[in-house]
Design goal:
50% of the residues lie in helices and 14% in strands. By secondary structure, it is an alpha/beta fold. Strands 2-3-1-4-7 form a five-stranded parallel sheet, with helices on both faces. The chain has a two-stranded antiparallel ribbon with strand order 5-6.
């Protein structure tokens, strides 16, 4: 099983790199952000409970997220592996995931995408989403063919509530206080952590760096 945890602050490119990895490894991309947004759009009880938290830049409770991830990873398509994007975000979530994986004899590899915060703010404030099909654009790096209109269906693009600068800064603060210690936890308990600098390079180059770093880590593990 290939269990990968993509780690990095909001706007570090985890979603894009997760898609590259899942296409390469043929395993599912498991994004807690996408799962929560799906529940919000569906109008479910869980979605109603978390919508205010997400829009304010806060983190949904560990218990809710842990259960949601467990249910997703227990599905048949994840039996050969998965790429986790946006989870774990707290020490409690990391400890829960380690216990869950250890109970199944699985050891994950953590890929940390390191990106400067000023770069992140520029990326996220320029992001736009089609409210109909969900396609993402960026006014600086990946603009639509026609200003503010989706290439696929012509729908007017929108700024997600969690991509507004005040919310972005709150999300980065939450990441700094609650999530970065998770990296130290993984290192302390001897899990595999791969560092990838991702501030300046385009996504395909970052993906090449991830593959090279993982190959190097695999060789190092085999030689021990």
């Amino acid at each position: 099983m290939r269990a990968i945890v993509l780690f990095g602050s909001p706007g570090s490119g985890k979603g894009t790199q997760a898609k590259f990895l899942t296409e390469c490894l043929r395993v599912p991309h498991v994004s807690t952000g996408d799962m929560l947004r799906d529940r919000i759009r569906s109008g479910s009880e869980l979605g109603t409970a978390v919508v205010a938290t997400m829009h304010s830049g806060g983190l949904v409770s560990d218990q809710v997220v842990n259960l949601m991830v467990e249910e997703r990873l227990s599905k048949p398509d994840a039996a050969k592996g998965f790429v986790l994007d946006g989870y774990p975000r707290t020490l409690a979530q990391a400890e829960h995931l380690c216990r869950w994986l250890d109970g199944r004899g699985v050891r994950e590899v953590v890929i940390h995408l390191a990106v400067d915060y000023n770069v992140i703010i520029g990326r996220l404030t320029g992001r736009r989403e089609c409210p109909r099909c969900g396609t993402l654009y960026n006014v600086a790096f990946h603009p639509p063919k026609m200003d503010e209109l989706c290439d696929l269906d012509g729908e007017k693009l929108a700024i997600r509530d969690d991509d507004r600068e005040p919310v972005i800064r709150e999300r980065l603060d939450a990441y700094g206080h609650q999530t970065r210690p998770v990296l130290e936890y993984y290192r302390t308990v001897g899990r595999r952590v791969v560092e990838v600098e991702a501030s300046d390079d385009p996504p395909p180059i970052v993906f090449q760096k991830i593959c090279q770093a993982m190959e190097k880590d695999d060789r190092s593990k085999d030689s021990r």
